[in-house]
Amino acid sequence: MSSVQHLYGTPAPQPSNGSKNSTESGDAPEKLHLTSHNQYKTPRLLREDLNPNPLIQFNKWLSSALNPKDNESPIVIEPEAMTISTTTKKGIPSSRIVLLKTVDEKGFIFFTNYNSRKSKELIENPYASLAFYWREISKSVRVIGNVEKITRKESEEYFQSRPRGSQIGAWSSPQSTIVKEGQVQSIVDEKAKEFGENEKIDCPDFWGGWRIVPFEIEFWSGQPSRLHDRFRYTREEGSSGDWEINRLAP
Ligand SMILES: Cc1cc2nc3c(=O)[nH]c(=O)nc-3n(C[C@H](O)[C@H](O)[C@H](O)COP(=O)(O)O)c2cc1C
């Protein structure tokens, strides 16, 4: 019996050397093949459709993902969810999902614990890559840039707009550290008591926003037969000059 599972689509060809995919004791993962061949189809993306400023282009894409103008395009669920990749000084990468909260004239802002793994890596090596994937409309965006902490005032203002439960959560979670079962909940209970019902909760000094200031942004729009449209904007790191725009092969 084959130990290869096909999650969907037609089974991929089997290796002819009869190699085993799991051990008798069942302690190795079963090999999974994902054999779908989705045909992406969005309107063609052409050079003349692009705004010279990629942040304006991004805002256009984000707002049409949230509020499609025509009634036929689907609404994208949580288009602000983005993968952010950071690296250690040695160049070892790690990725996770965060939520984009602001796009301003300089870049992309998200909020987190400044003692978390991602923040430590951003301090060690102040560059990040973001990736958005909007499945419902077959679009993707990649951003590469250097990072900076936003001002304390900006972090405090945003913190005050968060629900009280999230404010207490920020105070209570030593993000990315090893904790005992139930430990975070008991800190939450303690902090909730400490803050009482109505007392204003200040933004912890170990919590705030990061801004990714891009020097490269790529817009990807899915097309049939993998012949996708890709455009990349680039400019020198730290420059406020014009962006160069190039079509890339899919
Ligand atoms: C949809 C989604 C949104 C998230 N948003 C955030 C966020 O905005 N900020 C954050 O610190 N973590 C967020 N997280 C949790 C992170 O993915 C991650 O677990 C956490 O930040 C710790 O990452 P680190 O240990 O690499 O620093 C989110 C997770 C998901 C799945």
TrEMBL record:
<dbReference type="InterPro" id="IPR012349">
    <property type="entry name" value="Split_barrel_FMN-bd"/>
</dbReference>
<comment type="pathway">
    <text>Cofactor metabolism; pyridoxal 5'-phosphate salvage; pyridoxal 5'-phosphate from pyridoxine 5'-phosphate: step 1/1.</text>
</comment>
<comment type="pathway">
    <text>Cofactor metabolism; pyridoxal 5'-phosphate salvage; pyridoxal 5'-phosphate from pyridoxamine 5'-phosphate: step 1/1.</text>
</comment>
<feature type="region of interest" description="Disordered">
    <location>
        <begin position="1"/>
        <end position="31"/>
    </location>
</feature>
<dbReference type="Pfam" id="PF01243">
    <property type="entry name" value="PNPOx_N"/>
</dbReference>
<feature type="domain" description="Pyridoxine 5'-phosphate oxidase dimerisation C-terminal">
    <location>
        <begin position="207"/>
        <end position="250"/>
    </location>
</feature>
<dbReference type="InterPro" id="IPR019576">
    <property type="entry name" value="Pyridoxamine_oxidase_dimer_C"/>
</dbReference>
<dbReference type="GO" id="GO:0004733">
    <property type="term" value="F:pyridoxamine phosphate oxidase activity"/>
</dbReference>
<feature type="compositionally biased region" description="Polar residues">
    <location>
        <begin position="15"/>
        <end position="25"/>
    </location>
</feature>
<dbReference type="InterPro" id="IPR000659">
    <property type="entry name" value="Pyridox_Oxase"/>
</dbReference>
<dbReference type="Pfam" id="PF10590">
    <property type="entry name" value="PNP_phzG_C"/>
</dbReference>
<protein>
    <recommendedName>
        <fullName>pyridoxal 5'-phosphate synthase</fullName>
        <ecNumber>1.4.3.5</ecNumber>
    </recommendedName>
</protein>
<keyword id="KW-0288">FMN</keyword>
<keyword id="KW-0560">Oxidoreductase</keyword>
<dbReference type="GO" id="GO:0008615">
    <property type="term" value="P:pyridoxine biosynthetic process"/>
</dbReference>
<dbReference type="InterPro" id="IPR011576">
    <property type="entry name" value="Pyridox_Oxase_N"/>
</dbReference>
<keyword id="KW-0285">Flavoprotein</keyword>
<feature type="domain" description="Pyridoxamine 5'-phosphate oxidase N-terminal">
    <location>
        <begin position="76"/>
        <end position="180"/>
    </location>
</feature>
<dbReference type="GO" id="GO:0010181">
    <property type="term" value="F:FMN binding"/>
</dbReference>
